[in-house]
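Renewal narrative, Specific Aim 1. Our central claim is that a sequence can be written position by position from structural information alone. The example that follows is taken directly from our test logs and has not been curated for this report. It begins with the structure tokens describing the chain, in the order in which they were read.
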């Protein structure tokens, strides 16, 4: 039996609940980040770089991507747990990288939470490596 294919397209507002559920199922949400607000914010800046992957009419993957003129960023890279391990994550990430390349983006960064060793190892296999920088953050608008 062959693996179903995944169609990648820009996020649509009607995808919101399916995307939030996917992020919850993959452990990407945190109590201090409202995923609905994160989606609203992304839709106001480069919404075409917010991608979803669909298979059999269901959202099974996401990649929230952005480019600030200096480097690209990938957030909320997620694949439905029942569909992991067959290449969907690498496929949507490669698609996002292609869109960034079209914009002239020379380097892509990814945020990975400390302790997420399995994902860090997976991203290493996909060509990513620690770049010697420490990510720091400051919330200026509370959710």
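The sequence written for that structure reads:
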């Amino acid at each position: 039996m062959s693996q179903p294919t995944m169609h990648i397209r820009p996020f649509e507002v009607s995808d919101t609940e399916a995307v939030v559920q996917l992020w919850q199922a993959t452990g990407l949400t945190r109590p201090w980040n409202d995923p609905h607000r994160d989606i609203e914010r992304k839709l106001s800046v480069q919404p075409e770089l917010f991608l979803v992957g669909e298979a059999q009419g269901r959202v099974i993957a996401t990649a929230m991507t952005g480019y600030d003129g200096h480097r690209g960023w990938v957030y909320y890279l997620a694949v439905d747990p029942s569909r992991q391990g067959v290449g969907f994550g690498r496929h949507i990430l490669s698609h996002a990288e292609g869109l960034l390349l079209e914009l002239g983006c020379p380097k892509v960064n990814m945020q990975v939470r400390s302790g997420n060793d399995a994902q860090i190892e997976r991203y290493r296999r996909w060509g990513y490596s620690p770049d010697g920088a420490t990510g720091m953050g400051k919330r200026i608008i509370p959710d």
